[in-house]
Design goal:
The complex is a heterotetramer, with two copies of chain A (330 residues) and two copies of chain B (207 residues). With 330 residues, chain A is an alpha/beta fold. Chain A is built from eight helices and 15 strands. The chains are: A alpha/beta (330), B mainly alpha (207). The structure holds adenosine-5'-diphosphate (2 copies) and magnesium ion (MG) (4 copies). One magnesium ion binds next to loops of chain B.
Chain lengths: 330, 207, 330, 207
């Protein structure tokens, strides 16, 4: 394993420090317990959005702290949910009269630790559980679907609504709505390497891909032979559409997300494949975003996320945002 | 009577047993999870070992509570939340009037109940609870058995058997659940680490 | 080799199409000859900035076309300089009364093809040659230093100056100045894989790194054993400082650039190392940018770039920019 | 007299010889360059082969010019610029009044001169010019030799010898120059592909 590292036990702390120093205009870092908060609290009362999860998915979530998105993010160890005291400390730091809204990806560890954190705070609070990964069949007997690249879209749009002064319930409901409008699915060509492990999480043959992979390199729907970009886009997009069922002519946001190890050139090629498919199906890609936003360390591969757009979602997607990883109109 | 020293001695044994089986636990979570379980467990054990000096003379419930808090604030992931819940749940149910045997049975039972609530799960879901629930049951059954060697032997066997039983289960909770049918054929990492911990504690009484 | 690809001969075309469709608000694509131009020409006359080079370095250069940066970019085949007809066609499309300024990285192929392109156009024109890579010793007997990650900084600042209506000579001189204030150097842990080749460009042992690597995976200063992030940062930063010789207390921009295959977490860790070193040397990191901007496909590794800042450079760095890969204040 | 057909037949031979040595050329540019040289060359050859039908009956200077333009607009990289410059330079110096022998010597000489200007380089810099300059010189020397087999044989040998000589040179131009001392010990990829092209053309006369 080759990495920029001094001491494997300190990578998170050093990386967080660097992140803080590189973006003093946007964020500040609290160490022990670790969290990233906006450099400046909003002068107007607002619902405070806190997300978090295991590290290794950067820029998610720390890269999304700032005006128009999150108020704080709690980074856990690589691929391990953060601990409740992080959420408690972050909440106490950023609360701003209108309550705390936690945004949590649907994984047991995240859910449990965020619940324990929520139990520890006194402010009003609510939680949005993001579960956009259509690769995993949902059923009442299971943990349900994972939260993946759609999380960024929930954080952006709810973050925008919160800036308008909307209350906790409105923000929570809007987040649940955006989550419901959103479906994602990905494919991996290689495994990632967790720094502490020092070797790839899984073995995969040179001609195989993991279809429906999770963002921790955990196995997906099935292992299969590599397919052309057109073929795999078709399978992924059709699975997503089966789930979110857009109408003919409906407007959508299409997000092509890279897992970290795949060049931008390929991600745009994937966008081209997806765009063509949706065009054929008479679905209108009216917003788009392509890049490495929800990564799995150095894993090669990527995912599609599609969100059905109504006027509210478009408005809150287009609105100004000023974070380390997403920035526009300011 | 149970003392702080017993608890920290047990932690040391647990740590050794986990380290001895490090590669296997690592591999299990790589196969059906995300590969961090062994690091979570080791981090937690290392952190709580450091409390030996400061807690060894404290009352049992305080010891368990502090261990739980330490796990809660340093481990993270599913196992951090769950083991913290177990230990804090145990702390709450210590009764200085009861025998060790009674205390252990009651504390463990309630700790596991708290875990079930926290994890919204129960038996047969291919998790650490598939080890911890049967262990809690056998401990209750043996509440009046004075010979700790006999109890330890029974517990050890139950833990091992139930750990192995997770191999052919279909996971419905935790990260392995995303795998569906593909989760079958692999032992659950949390079940394995829990069983190794129980095994280490039991061996103290058997040998 | 595992990639999102349909037909290896079409990757550039498909990727370019996708890029165009994902950013209709910013750019448009011309095929055969290939170039990327702003979606809307500036209504005020201005010097038109055109850059380009081999593909595989995305987002450089296409991701930097838009308000406040380039007017057009000419993408060549992977790692091959673009052809003169691309530059000719781009120049004819984007010229806007005040002449054409070419920004070219210092590689024989780029220089020659841009020269041939320049010979073909009738508009006034000038060329900035970027050669920020301090890994390569400069001497009058050689081709000189390579142009690497500092190119983005030249494109941003000169792009900003051009928006003010500055003339060709002013823009050219300012670009040369920024280039002179800038030094870069990088290290690679793995080779990249050129899609047409299908296998890594070079072999490298699990405990080795290529020190002073170029952005095409071409060998650098030397092959050596892997060092800690602190150690290698020290060597790189000292080499850069030896070259650009900042004064005590001087303000600099520090850019940590990822080559594509290295997670953001590590790039921020590298930033932390560099920041500490400069701090110790009493050099003031007053601007920073961390991310994958000048990549080498999927190569793991990264580079430092340091630019000495004067008032002009800061002003043109901070000013509004609206491109696919860099966007702020609009 | 030289005909369009001769040129396109030569291109076919060149293409075959390059394809036969594809792996070697690829490896050379991976060792001291960026690995694209073989793809640049093959793309150019494929593109110009396609012009056979449309150009085969055209005047020689027009053929060379069109070949040069095609290379210029499809190849890219250093080799695209340089080979385009060679061919366009050759086209400009064709004289329908001269013998083939004279024409080839003059055209090649002027083409190589144009390349030197374009690349700001000359002999001994570890580039394709280390093959092309000596070849241009021997062609000039042999301007009056009527036996094309003898000429071809000489040219072939000069090309091979000078190609090999690039191995121990220190690169001062092109991408290999960034390597400094490390460029030594590898043949220059452009020198090798140029030599293979010349070899293919010469063999037409020898066999
Ligand atoms: N909801 C749950 N209920 C009970 N146990 C669970 C639950 N979710 C996960 N587990 C246990 O946690 C183990 C994984 O722990 P760990 O790898 O540390 O955390 P994570 O799953 O968050 O990566 C699983 O093997 C399983 O035994
Ligand atoms: N300035 C130059 N003068 C002469 N030949 C050069 C020059 N620069 C590069 N070359 C030749 O070009 C070859 C490389 O061509 P190619 O790989 O296609 O382009 P690039 O170097 O741009 O990747 C080198 O092996 C060398 O022979
Ligand atoms: Mg985990
Ligand atoms: Mg795990
Ligand atoms: Mg090249
Ligand atoms: Mg090359």
């Amino acid at each position: 394993m080759k990495k920029f590292v001094n001491n494997i036990d300190n990578i998170l702390t050093e990386s967080l420090s660097g992140f803080g120093k590189a973006h003093t205009d946007i964020i500040k870092i609290n160490h022990a317990p670790d969290f990233i908060a906006r450099a400046n609290k909003s002068s107007k009362p607002k619902v405070s959005l806190i997300s978090g999860g295991g590290s290794g998915h950067e820029p998610l979530h720390g890269g999304f702290v700032g005006y128009g998105m999150l108020d704080a993010a709690c980074p856990g160890q690589v691929f391990s949910a953060p601990t409740p005291d992080q959420m408690e400390a972050a909440a106490n730091e950023v609360h701003n009269e209108k309550g705390i809204l936690f945004i949590v990806k649907n994984y047991s560890g995240d859910i449990m630790n965020f619940e324990m954190g929520a139990d520890m705070i006194e402010h009003d609070h609510a939680t949005i559980i993001v579960n956009d990964d259509v690769a995993v069949e949902d059923s009442t007997f299971t943990t349900g679907r994972r939260g993946v690249a759609g999380t960024m879209i929930v954080e952006k749009t709810v973050g925008s609504l919160a800036e308008t002064g909307a209350n906790l319930e409105e923000c929570k409901n809007f987040g649940d709505h955006v989550n419901k409008m959103t479906g994602s699915m990905g494919v991996a060509f290689t495994s990632c390497t967790v720094p502490a492990a020092g070797k790839p999480t899984f073995d995969i043959a040179p001609n195989e891909m993991e279809f429906g992979v999770g963002i921790h390199g955990e196995p997906g729907r099935r292992r299969e032979k590599i397919k052309s970009a057109n073929e795999l886009s078709k399978e992924i997009i059709e699975t997503i559409l089966d789930d979110i069922k857009p109408n003919k002519g409906e407007k959508v946001l299409m997000h092509v997300n890279g897992f970290g190890g795949t060049p931008l050139m390929e991600l745009y090629l994937l966008f081209e494949c997806g765009q063509k498919l949706l065009n054929e199906k008479n679905i209108n890609v009216s917003r788009s975003i392509v890049g490495n936003y929800t990564t799995s360390l150095d894993m090669a591969g990527g995912s599609f996320t599609i969100t059905k757009l109504d006027e509210n979602i478009v408005e809150h997607w287009d609105s100004a945002v000023y974070t380390a990883a997403l920035r526009w109109k300011m | 009577m149970m003392k702080g020293k017993n608890i920290f001695d047990s932690i040391e044994k647990i740590q050794n047993n986990i380290i001895d089986n490090k590669e296997e636990i690592e591999r299990l979570d790589q196969q059906i999870g995300d590969g961090d379980h062994i690091f979570n467990i080791l981090r937690g054990l290392e952190e709580i070992s450091k409390l030996r000096e400061s807690l060894i003379g404290e009352p049992i419930d305080k010891v368990f509570k502090q261990l739980g808090m330490k796990i809660m604030t340093t481990v993270g992931g599913s196992s951090g939340a769950l083991f913290a819940t177990l230990l804090i749940g145990m702390a709450k149910n210590y009764n200085s009037q009861s025998t060790d045997q009674e205390n252990i049975a009651k504390m463990f039972y309630e700790g596991v109940e708290a875990m079930k609530k926290r994890g919204k799960s129960g038996s047969g879901e291919k998790t650490m609870l598939d080890v911890l629930i049967p262990v809690s049951e056998i401990l209750c059954e043996c509440k009046n058995e004075k010979n700790s060697k006999i109890v330890a032997d029974k517990v050890k066997k139950v833990a091992e058997k139930s750990m192995l039983s997770t191999k052919d289960m279909l996971a419905t909770k935790g990260r392995a659940s995303f795998l569906g049918e593909r989760s079958k054929g692999h032992i659950d990492p949390g079940a394995r680490s829990s069983q190794l911990a129980i095994d280490a504690v039991c061996n103290q009484f058997i040998n």
